[in-house]
Amino acid sequence: MKRIGIVFGLLACMATSADAQEQGFDRVVPQSDMQVKLSYAPIVAEAAPAVVNIYTKKIVRARRSALFDDPLFQRFFGDRFSFGAPQERVQGSLGSGVIVRPNGVIVTNNHVIEGADEISVVLNDRREFEAEVVLADPRTDLAILRIDAGDEPLSSLRLSDSDDVLVGDIVLAIGNPFGVGQTVTGGIVSATARTQQGISDFGFFIQTDAAVNPGNSGGALVGMNGELLGINTAIYSRTGASNGIGFAVPANMVKSVLRAALNEGQLTRPWLGVRGQNVTSDLASSLGLDRAGGVLVDEVYEGGPAAAAGVLPGDVIMAVGDKEVIDEPGLNFRIATLESGAEVSLAVLSGGFIQERLVTLALPPEDPVRNVTKLDGRHPFQGVTVGNLSPRFNEELQIDPFLKGVVVLKIDGRTPAARYQLLAPGDILLKVNNVDVTRVEDIADVIPEQADEYLYQVLRRGRVQECLLAGQGRSYRCRVVQ
Prior knowledge:
Layout: H1 2-22, H2 33-36, H3 41-47, E1 51-62, H4 71-77, E2 87-101, E3 105-108, H5 110-113, E4 118-122, E5 128-130, E6 132-137, E7 142-146, E8 170-175, E9 183-194, E10 205-208, E11 220-223, E12 228-235, E13 246-250, H6 251-262, E14 274-278, H7 281-287, E15 295-300, H8 305-308, E16 316-320, E17 323-324, H9 328-336, E18 343-350, E19 353-360, E20 373-374, E21 384-388, H10 391-397, E22 406-411, H11 416-419, E23 428-432, E24 435-436, H12 440-446, E25 453-460, E26 463-470, E27 475-480
């Protein structure tokens, strides 16, 4: 009720000012105590107890200098120099988080807790708890933590429908900037659906001019209804301080990550099964559109949800449900916030007409099964761990879901592959001695043992390289062939 009174009081004040301007007055005297006492304090009082400070510790081990392992140095000095031993130091960092369940479930940014050995959460009332990581998702830069505060329910924030936020809405940012303690700043929503920021794979952000600084990461962006609109994640700055451009992960994306953390414990997003490109102004003209916007479908995965709904290469996806699609990151965001099995309507430009396609979303398939295997045998690829690519496995590896073949996952040290740098994690093995490699099961048949030379092709960082290892490692060279 107090918040409603504040809004009505603000509207009354604005109306009074407008009437005064019409009558030629520059200033007006407040007509009521409400107009004098306008404040966000009731909203802050409700939201602030749910915002926490997060402190992390990470043990960093400094490398031992190669000088101390040199045989000549060892001959004269041995191990008498203790400063040559690896050194350890504790690296600390800070951030913010938001309690979203009374039983101690907390949302923060993945980059706040990434690599931490210890995570401490300090509540608004100064109580401190150790936290465990329930789920961390680098692709959205979100992480779900849990603390045990006993049977007492904690203050928590309800997640709003972030699709309802409008440019110009008043918002509050609550967090722990620079470690000074909990701080509240205010501003407006400067933009919605900000993409192409390079912050995360699912870049689709609420932009605000509320001051957000280092330490605010993981904190709350709160609307005037006291609900959580988003998680403050990044700022645009050349100095590291606020320049009035901050970005928050929308609450609807938070909901999808939270749902996975509390239900399945593993995040697997629904999949549409298309690959496309943004419709630029040049493409729009050739497609008969009067403006840029939408996603031109380049490829449709056979048997995927989009294919089953009749989406074809050359179609342009214009909207998901009643939400316009501007670019591919926006399309990915809309699909990622939905659940597997949900039916969604796509507005598709096909054959010169806007048509509806009803798509039943599904999880990306694992076909073929990944079959993660460490190669063995008397050949240069001994000790290399590989697996079969599939849309499901590719999603976990954060690579193009349409890539197929055998991917290098790990290389043991002190092996020929590591010594000669024959392969690298992420390489996709295409051919060995001019024989195609399509499955892990094929490798035993195509890699000869103790051969005089090995000719193989890999896809590395988008380029096909052909490499030749000959003479038991005495000769090794690679060249780009595509």
